[in-house]
Specification:
The chain is about 35% helix and about 15% strand. By secondary structure, the protein is of the alpha/beta class. The chain has a single domain, classed as 3-Layer(aba) Sandwich (Rossmann fold), CATH 3.40.50.10140. β1, α1 and β2 form a beta-alpha-beta unit. The longest helix is centred in the C-terminal third of the chain and has 21 residues.
Length: about 200
């Protein structure tokens, strides 16, 4: 069962995101890291898997690059403001489950969004201590990130963060439908398009 969930905006800092994934897989073991494009098997219900893993993870790393906060759909609406945006739902699920949520800033200049810049359901993210992975001295930065997460996982085993229990009963899947505009597969659009809870 993965312990670390990587939440990310697929159009944001892809090369840095991939470096983070490879480094953490090498440090903690690939089986301990959940990344949707790598961890969801073909034919699986991606919505059910994402919700389950976001609720079950010990640590969620929210990978925030320069385009994360202001990413917009074709109609100009900020994706994070859509109630059923996947990134927003992942963070809400982890927070409600009482999991440790860590903002990870990708690059030298990316800033942690303030609570007032975020939807109220995830405003807490803007108050959480973050980690940074600067491009300068990247190998050393990735090593420090791996060490920090290993320490958090060790702490979580002995002193789990108190929180609110998940709203879903174990084993009860959440049904979601992806509304895709402009072509593309439902999976490709799922992370950044509107997802309706039914």
């Amino acid at each position: 069962m993965p312990s670390v969930f990587l939440s990310f905006r697929k159009r944001d800092s892809r090369w840095m995101r991939e470096r983070v994934y490879r480094a953490l897989s090498g440090r903690l073991g690939a089986g301990k890291i959940f990344k949707s494009s790598e961890s969801i098997p073909p034919g699986a219900d991606f919505a059910e898997v994402l919700v389950h893993q976001a609720a079950a993870c010990r640590v969620m790393c929210v990978l925030i690059g320069p385009g994360w906060l202001d990413a917009r759909s074709e109609d100009g609406v900020r994706l994070l403001d859509r109630p059923h945006d996947w990134v927003r739902l992942e963070i809400i699920t982890a927070l409600r489950a009482g999991n440790r949520v860590v903002p990870v800033l990708l690059g030298d200049a990316t800033m942690l969004p303030g609570p007032s810049e975020l939807p109220v359901e995830i405003a807490e993210l803007g108050r959480l201590q973050c980690l940074r992975v600067p491009e300068a001295h990247l190998p050393e930065s990735l090593e420090k990130l791996g060490d920090a997460l290993a320490a958090l996982l060790a702490d979580a085993d002995t002193d789990p963060r108190p929180g609110t229990a998940p709203t879903e009963e174990p084993g009860q899947p959440t049904t979601m439908t992806a509304h895709v505009s402009g072509g593309g597969s439902a999976y490709q659009a799922a992370r950044d398009q509107t997802i309706n809870l039914t």
